């Protein structure tokens, strides 16, 4: 047995320290393609804060890198392990410790699955809004690590807006408490926010205080068909400019609609160039939808179909949630995540269509249109080297276009390994240098998920 495994076992149950190569191989990577990974030396499954502290003290003592992992549904390689590293799986710390309807907060361990928290909140007439499409599997710790978004973020915002306070085990094993459980609070630098989207490079989140909201009324949605992507984007702008506050505003192109139909026989209209889903969870969603339907028609919608009830609306949502798994069935995929100001969504998607043509590739598009957050999905044959190189180049061209349009290389999936070079371009030299210095304050030995972000 190696020194590392032996020392880890001094503070963790035997079953919580696994170095069997069949198991370590299973924890080597998340769901991103084109990213290096290797089986870690050992996978650990702590169940208490003290056990996480023991792991970090051991790692510091032996100078061994640690890769925190949630459900490994990430799409940027941020949870990928490296040879010799400890993969620190947080899946066994999965308790909801508190749910308080008066303070409207939940205190959760990081391994709680997003949808479980939502269901628990619903039992108290509350909701936890951040809702990535992967919500049935991804964890709150992973959502904090990536700063995850989702379908209802157009109205309710992203994970960062719901994280009030954190307990974090630092690389040297100290326990840091950040933030608050009060509705307001401005004491000192906002270290809580710093950890959101830090991709496990600063410390290990072992508990989070998250804000809950009153459960909204059931959502009603419509589906609008457009003969061009441009017209659909014009409708998005018209709806936002008119002051509407939709709780859902999602776009899918023909390729995506067909892929979803093929996977789940959803009966979506598959001859349309662009399908826009708009939903409201307001007090009078039917009249909001009527007004938005009119705006869609003025922008050129060929058909506007309101869902009959909230059940049918939920089916539309489900169809959108299936977009990525459905596109995955068309071949090997690379999912981009460029966000632009929503006023420039049309230019962005026209540019993506040009890139698909120039690089002779299929690029399916789905988008959190109300947020200007696009997910162009490059489909290619991984066995064909030349096509794979084209796919990678088209992925880069999409990010370059996003930056040109005043956007960001990642709206919600994070940088990980996949977009490291691009982060430097987005931040510029001063921003990058300061970010490196911040990392060194928390992690002077550089053992916390090294090689991610920059
Ligand atoms: C089908 C599909 C749909 C998706 N839809 C969306 C979507 O709509 N919106 C969206 O934002 N993302 C989406 N994603 C991406 C992914 O689900 C999110 O990035 C999610 O937040 C990852 O959570 P996870 O538990 O899988 O974390 P992991 O992938 O395991 O880890 C993600 C990052 O968080 C770090 N981390 C994990 N736990 C901790 C911890 N306790 N402390 C410190 N760092 C930690 C890891 O080191 C890593 O850097 C989707 C993915 C799939 C496969």
Provide a brief overview of the structure.
Helices cover 36% and strands 20% of the residues. By secondary structure, the chain is α+β, with helices and mostly antiparallel strands.
Walk me through what this model shows.
The protein has 454 residues and is α+β, with helices and mostly antiparallel strands. The chain is 36% helix and 20% strand. The chain is built from 15 helices and 18 strands. The strands form four sheets. The protein has a seven-stranded antiparallel beta sheet with strand order 15-12-14-13-17-18-16, sandwiched between helices. Strands 5-6-10-8-9 form a five-stranded antiparallel beta sheet. Helix 8 crosses helix 10 (285-298) and helix 8 (229-241) packs antiparallel against helix 13 (345-358). The longest helix has 23 residues, at 420-442. The mean pLDDT is 96. The structure holds flavin-adenine dinucleotide. Flavin-adenine dinucleotide binds at residues 30-31, 67-75, 78-79, 90, 110, 132-134, 138-139, 141-143, 145-146, 148-150, 199-200, 204-205, 324-325, 412-413, 449.
Distinctive features:
single chain; about 450 residues; alpha+beta; seven-stranded antiparallel beta sheet; five-stranded antiparallel beta sheet; 15 helices; 18 strands; about 35% helix; about 20% strand; binds flavin-adenine dinucleotide
**Major β-sheet annotation:** 7 strands, antiparallel
| Unreliable parts | none
Strand content: 15-25%
Work out the number of β strands.
Answer: 18
Mean pLDDT metric: 96
- Distance between the terminal alpha carbons, to the nearest Å? 34 Å
């Amino acid at each position: 047995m190696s020194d590392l495994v032996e020392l880890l076992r001094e503070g963790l149950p035997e079953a919580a320290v696994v170095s069997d190569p069949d198991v370590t191989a299973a924890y080597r990577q998340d769901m991103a393609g084109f990213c290096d990974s290797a089986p870690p030396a050992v996978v650990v499954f702590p169940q208490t804060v003290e056990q996480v502290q023991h792991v970090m003290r051991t790692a510091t003592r032996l100078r061994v890198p640690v890769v925190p992992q949630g459900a490994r549904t990430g799409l940027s390689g941020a949870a990928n392990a490296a040879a010799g590293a400890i993969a620190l799986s947080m899946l066994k710390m999965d308790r909801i410790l508190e749910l308080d309807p008066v303070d409207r907060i939940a205190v959760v361990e990081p391994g709680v699955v997003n949808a479980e928290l939502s269901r628990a909140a619903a039992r108290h007439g509350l909701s936890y809004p951040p809702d990535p499409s992967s919500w049935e599997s991804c964890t709150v710790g992973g959502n904090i690590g990536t700063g995850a978004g989702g379908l209802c973020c157009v109205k309710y915002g992203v994970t960062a807006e719901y994280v009030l306070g954190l307990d974090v085990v630092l690389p040297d094993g100290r326990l840091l408490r950040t933030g608050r459980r009060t509705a307001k609070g401005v004491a000192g630098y906002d270290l809580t926010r710093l950890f959101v989207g830090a991709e496990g490079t600063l410390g290990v989140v072992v508990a989070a205080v998250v804000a809950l909201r009153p459960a909204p009324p059931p959502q009603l949605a419509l589906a609008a068909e457009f003969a061009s992507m441009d017209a659909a984007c014009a409708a998005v702008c018209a709806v936002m400019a008119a002051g509407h506050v939709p709780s859902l505003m999602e776009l899918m192109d023909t390729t995506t609609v067909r892929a979803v139909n093929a996977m789940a026989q959803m009966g979506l209209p598959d001859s349309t160039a662009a399908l826009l889903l708009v939903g409201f969870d307001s007090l009078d969603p039917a009249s909001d939808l009527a007004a938005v339907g009119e705006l869609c028609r003025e922008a050129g919608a060929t058909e506007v179909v309101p869902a009959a009830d909230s059940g049918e609306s939920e089916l539309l949502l489900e169809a959108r949630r299936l977009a990525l798994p459905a596109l995955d069935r068309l071949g090997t995929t690379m999912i981009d995540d460029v966000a632009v100001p929503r006023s420039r969504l049309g230019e962005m998607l026209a540019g993506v269509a040009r890139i698909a043509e120039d690089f002779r590739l299929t690029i399916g598009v789905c988008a959190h249109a109300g947020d200007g957050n696009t997910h162009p999905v490059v489909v290619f044959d991984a066995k064909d080297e030349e096509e794979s190189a084209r796919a990678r180049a088209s992925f880069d061209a999409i990010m370059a276009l996003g930056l040109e349009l005043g956007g960001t290389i990642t709206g919600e999936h994070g940088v990980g390994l996949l977009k490291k070079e691009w982060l430097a371009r987005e931040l510029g030299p001063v921003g990058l240098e300061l970010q490196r210095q911040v990392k060194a304050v928390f992690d002077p030995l550089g053992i916390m998920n090294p090689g991610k972000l920059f």
